[in-house]
Specification:
α1 packs across α2, α2 packs across α5 and α4 crosses α7. The chain has a single domain, classed as Fido-like domain (Fic-like fold). The protein starts with about 20 loop residues before the first helix and ends in a 22-residue tail after the last helix. The C terminus is likely disordered. It has a two-stranded antiparallel ribbon. It is built from 10 helices and 2 strands. With about 290 residues, it is an all-alpha fold.
Length: about 290
Amino acid sequence: MPDRYTYPGTEVLVNKLGIRDPEELSRVEQGVAEIGLIELRHRPLQGNFDLAHLGRIHRYLMGDLYDWAGQLRTVDTQALGTGVPHCGPDFIPQFARDIFGAIAADNRLRGMDQETFIRRLAHHWGELTALHSFRDGNTRSQSAFIDQLARQAGYGITWQALDLDRLKTARVRAVASSSEDLRVVLAPAIEPLAATDTETAELRNLHAADFPHSPRSGPLLPDRQPRPAGQQERTRTPASAGQPGATPARNDDAPQKDPLPLNPRGACANAQERSQGQNPFPATGRWGS
């Protein structure tokens, strides 16, 4: 539905390219994000697997199109086609502390046997689905985050092996009731990482020409490195205080103060705050938000 992030009277997100046609914007967004996902798969952004880290991933994937990329949303959202609301924007920082604190408490899932790893990964992804940190691009950024989290823990996810519709349903259920369905969906696609990664050679042969709706061009790996967060922010005009979607300038790794003395689970988990999610990695990807 129209909100402060969209062009007046439409559901098209305000974007840097001035695209007003929703289908065209969707094509361009998918092309840009697919290239970014490939890059991040092989040259991941370093971080602490916290909210700041997720924000940098989102900014890397979506920053070519949206000024608010990497900034927490300031409007209510819900899972498309379900009516299930996500976490209220006022409670995102607190709820995020719970989620990323639990990931840290799990030692970033390192040292776990495969069964335990899959179970805990499903749990954490369900929580991230509930959080829905950004106005759009959550499925893409979360998938990149989850992929990087898995790989540093010694496991690989074969995204092409996942059924998108089952994954979408399982993610909603994971945060509404139990992550068991999500565990079942993910399990066949997760294996310990092999000693070598044959995808890198294939990746170096890809060019932006393979993604005709993307404004990027040239070889993917040889010419483009993930930019440091500080550099990214210097190349973008920060939103002013009071502007829609604005967030104060800050050190992404610094502790953030609680804006409200409330338990985010009271605001999020008790409502059906669970989101949709679709796997962005398959070439045919029916992207979620």
